[in-house]
Write the structure tokens for this entry.
Amino acid sequence: MTTDRPRIGLVGHCGPDSFMLRSCVERAIDGADIHMLKSDKAVEESAADMDLLLVNRVLDGRFRNASGIDLIRHLRERLGHGAPAMMLVSNYGEAQEEARRAGAFPGFGKSELYDEQTLEKIRSAVAQKA
């Protein structure tokens, strides 16, 4: 569901990382509606209404499975074309490649949060979902 205010879900990130990601998203998309999703239940209830999910490689919170890549794969299979755009947040290239094969947009690592290229990736993923 795309609105004038893109809805962005931060999935499975600890408090400090959520704070940094929120700041990054706000720089990329002024006025974004940002939600912290810290459990399978929160993701299941909200995913279809999000424009973009920024998924941690190793999920922090109440998840049956700690793999962010498995979560991306599950949501892509369950929601099909109704799935939000998804990006993996990880510095590991092999994890990024596996996430793309699972249906994610090219993601970024925490070390790249404020790079202009990262901000453009976020904008592009939201625009392609619209």
About this structure: The radius of gyration is 13 Å. Strands lie at 7-11, 33-37, 52-56, 85-89, 105-108.
